[in-house]
Design brief:
6-stranded mixed sheet; 3 domains; TIM Barrel; Pyruvate Kinase, Chain: A, domain 1; 481 residues; 8-stranded parallel beta barrel; alpha/beta; M1 Pyruvate Kinase, Domain 3; 38% helix
């Protein structure tokens, strides 16, 4: 199903998008990837959504990517005797391990690992940062704090600790069970929450055993500090601006977003911008102008994908939210300034024959009257290299592996076709020409660029480039190979 845009749309499924008709409507409105949020819903509910997506994929004969988003460890305060209290600025407040119900002076924080690393001067944020506490004195089982920003604190509100690296693994016991469940289902991407260090990603990769690609959510200051190393061991990145905006000053988030997008593009790895992109559309059929501008900014920056969360999972207007994102993307990508920005930010470190082949494919396509760049790929690496170049013409990825086709649905500008394996380059050109015509990218009178590797069906062997006609008769009459 051809989109007239390059950026991809990730739509989260939930109670508002839980049946065949709605999920298909979301796909037809523009969703390319469906996110299954493991924080919400039972395994049976998630399995049902997965089955529906795969049925839609079969019915429409179009690869669809599924991303399972693991919850990560949740840090929360205990409960209060009166369910809630008002904390006043400047007053003392204690957090400790005592299981007794809390009051206006103290409450349990049942996470001894936090007390292990706290220091005087550290800050604790409660309820998405609405309450801020500064640690004055602390020990192995307590932290005496001063209320810096007051407000209402109630049972089991979340706690963020932005100033320290916590001695916690990114995967809780629940996450490990969810990971195995999701991999057995056959999801294409696993998103990891609470990433602080490369080891968190490597642990997830070990458990996944190649069954899904690994996407790291950048939502903690420690992850920003270690980003280069995290990127090296990740298959993709999510700029999770929700928690990032809680744990860091909000004005820090836009430049971090821009920096992370650029680093991912240089590395040739897909990046998603997420959180509150069209938040008002949870309740309104129309977004705010600021939200539209936010989505457009991410697209101008060159992100691979933009994501809807509650807008499509629990909102009143899920289809409208996807369609709005689709329309914004189409409008931005037809702006001449968009191409100027994208091409000015092209910073590719070419080190291999495959890099040179893909770069040459882009230059030829943009110099001559070429309609598409067609990449034969096993692992998806060649298509990712092509996406990194951000060419002016469509990228068609052809692969005999359905898992590769699905994973590439997340990458900028990549249009995926699941094809039969080929053994000769002539047949690869025929298959590419057929896909280009079938998808409406070219006619029999047009030309395409085809890249492939010999020997075929071996990852990492891209070494051939050819400009070919889209007419199969011309291909057979002009190619002695």
């Amino acid at each position: 199903m051809r989109r007239n845009r390059n950026v991809k749309i990730v739509a989260t499924l939930g109670p508002a998008s839980d049946d065949y008709e709605m999920i298909r409507a979301l796909f037809e409105a523009g969703a390319d990837v469906f996110r299954l949020n493991m924080s919400h819903g039972t395994h049976d509910e998630i399995r049902k959504r997965h089955e529906i997506i795969r049925q839609i994929e079969k019915d429409l004969d179009s690869p669809i990517a599924i991303l399972a988003d693991l919850q990560g460890p949740k840090l929360r305060v205990g409960v209060f005797a009166r369910d809630a209290e008002e904390l006043e600025v400047g007053k003392p407040f204690r957090l400790d391990l005592d299981k007794a119900k809390g009051d206006a002076h103290r409450v349990q924080l049942p996470h001894p690992e936090i007390f292990e690393v706290l220091e005087p001067g550290s800050h604790l944020l409660v309820n998405d940062g609405k309450i801020r506490l500064k640690v004055e004195k602390c020990g192995k089982d307590f932290a005496d704090c001063t209320v810096v920003v007051g407000g209402r604190i109630s049972n089991r509100k979340g706690v963020n600790v932005p100033d320290v690296v916590l001695p916690l693994a990114a995967l809780s016991d629940k996450d490990r069970k969810d990971l195995e469940f999701a991999c057995e289902l056959g999801v294409d991407w696993l998103a990891i929450s609470f990433v602080q260090r490369p080891a968190d990603v490597e642990e997830t990769r070990t458990l996944a055993r190649g069954r899904a690609a690994i996407l790291s959510k950048i939502e903690k200051p420690a992850a920003v500090m270690a980003f280069d190393d995290i990127l090296k061991v990740s298959d993709g990145i999510m700029v999770a601006r929700g928690d990032l905006g809680v744990e860091l000053p909000v004005q820090n988030v836009p430049p971090i977003q821009k920096r992370l997008i650029r680093a991912c593009r240089t590395a040739g790895k897909p990046v998603i911008v997420a959180t509150q992109m069209l938040e008002s559309m949870i309740e309104s059929p129309m977004p705010t102008r600021a939200e539209v501008s936010d989505v457009a900014t991410a697209i101008y920056e060159g992100t691979d994908a933009v994501m809807l969360s509650a807008e499509s999972a629990a909102g009143a207007f899920p289809v409208e939210a996807v369609r709005t994102m689709h329309n914004v993307a189409e409008e931005v990508e037809t702006d001449p300034i968009y191409r100027d920005i994208i091409e000015a930010a092209r910073n590719v470190d070419r080190k291999s024959v495959a890099d040179g082949i893909v770069s040459a494919a882009r230059e030829i396509a943009e110099t001559a009257s070429i309609k598409a760049i067609c990449c034969f790929t096993q692992s998806g690496t060649t298509a990712l290299r092509a996406a990194r170049e951000r060419p002016r013409v469509p990228i068609i990825a052809l692969t005999p592996l359905v898992g590769t086709a699905r994973r590439l649905c997340l990458s900028w500008g990549v249009n995926c076709f699941h094809t039969a394996a080929v053994e000769r380059f002539k047949m690869a050109v025929v298959a590419a020409a057929h896909a280009a015509r079938l998808g409406g990218y070219a006619t029999a009178k047009d030309q395409i660029v085809v890249t492939a590797g010999v020997p075929f069906n071996v990852p990492g062997t891209t070494n051939i480039l050819r400009v070919a006609p889209c007419d199969e008769k011309l291909i057979f009459s002009s190619d002695p190979g």
